[in-house]
C-alpha cells in the first residue's frame, strides 16, 4: 500500500534532504515542488514568517492538489533591528559590486551581512534563526486551508568570517557558542537535532499527528 503524499513547498535539494530526515516518522511520501510538477512560484508578500508560510502552504497545496507543508524562515540580527528577517532570502536584491549588477548569491548575502555588521562588537552580534511551518489540508469546500502553524528557533552569534562547508544560506557565519563552531561546521545529524527547522519540524510532526 502506497503512502499518501505530502508536498514540501521547496525546490531546494538541501532543504528536502533535511526534511526527509526531520519528518521520517510521518507516514507520508515527501515530494518537492519539482517532483509534483508545480512550476508556479508563490510570491512571498506577507509581512511576517507566519503570513508567508500560510500563503505558500495553501497556494501550493491547491496547485498540487495535496496536503502541503511550507515554511518561512530567516535570520534575525538584534543589532540590525531584526533584519534581514522575512527578507533573508532576498537580502540585498542585487549584488552592488563587480562590473555588472548581478542577482545575489548566498555568498553575496553573507558578505553583505558582514559588511553591515563591521562596526558591531562581538557582544552585540546576537542573532537567531527562526522558522515557522504551516500545514495546509483539504477544506470542506473542496479547496485547501491552513490547519495550523508552529514555530522553532535557535540562538547564536554572527561571527566575523565564514567557516564551514556544510549547510547553506547564512550557516557559515552563524556561530553556536555551545559548540564553538558555525552551523556550517557541525554534522547534518547534529544540525537536524538543534536547528530552528529541526525545532519547528518536531512540532510540525506532532501537529500532523493531531490533524490526521
Alpha carbon gyration radius: 18 Å
Distance between the termini: 18 Å
Q: Could you give a short account of the major beta sheet?
A: 7 strands, mixed
Would you tell me which CATH topology applies?
Maf protein
Low-confidence stretches: none
Q: Which band does the percent of strand residues land in? A: 25-35%
Q: N-to-C SSE series?
A: EHEHEEEHEEEEHH
Oligomer: single chain
- Total beta-strand segments: 9
Give the tally of structural domains: 1
Mean pLDDT: 90
Assign the CATH class.
Alpha Beta
CATH architecture term: Alpha-Beta Complex
Shape label: globular
Helix content: 25-40%
Q: Tell me the number of helical segments per DSSP (H or I, 4 or more residues long).
A: 5
Amino acid at each position: 500500500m502506497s503512502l499518501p503524499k505530502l508536498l514540501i513547498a521547496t525546490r531546494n535539494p538541501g532543504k528536502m534532504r533535511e526534511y526527509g530526515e526531520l519528518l521520517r516518522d510521518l507516514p507520508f511520501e515527501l515530494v518537492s515542488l519539482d517532483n509534483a510538477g508545480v512550476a508556479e512560484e508563490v510570491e512571498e508578500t506577507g509581512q511576517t514568517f507566519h503570513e508567508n508560510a500560510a500563503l505558500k502552504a495553501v497556494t501550493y497545496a491547491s496547485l498540487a492538489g495535496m496536503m502541503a507543508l511550507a515554511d518561512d524562515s530567516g535570520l534575525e540580527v538584534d543589532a540590525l533591528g531584526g533584519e534581514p528577517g522575512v527578507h533573508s532570502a532576498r537580502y540585498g536584491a542585487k549584488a552592488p559590486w563587480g562590473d555588472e549588477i548581478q542577482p545575489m548569491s548566498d555568498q553575496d548575502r553573507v558578505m553583505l551581512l558582514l559588511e553591515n555588521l563591521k562596526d558591531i562588537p562581538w557582544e552585540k552580534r546576537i542573532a537567531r534563526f527562526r522558522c515557522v511551518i504551516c500545514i495546509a489540508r483539504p477544506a470542506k469546500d473542496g479547496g485547501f486551508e491552513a490547519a495550523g502553524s508552529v514555530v522553532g528557533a535557535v540562538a547564536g552569534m554572527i561571527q566575523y568570517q565564514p567557516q564551514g562547508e556544510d549547510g547553506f544560506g547564512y550557516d557559515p557565519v552563524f556561530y553556536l557558542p555551545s559548540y564553538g563552531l558555525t552551523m556550517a561546521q557541525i554534522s547534518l545529524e547534529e544540525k537536524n537535532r538543534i536547528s530552528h527547522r529541526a525545532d519547528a519540524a518536531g512540532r510540525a510532526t506532532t501537529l500532523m499527528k493531531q490533524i490526521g
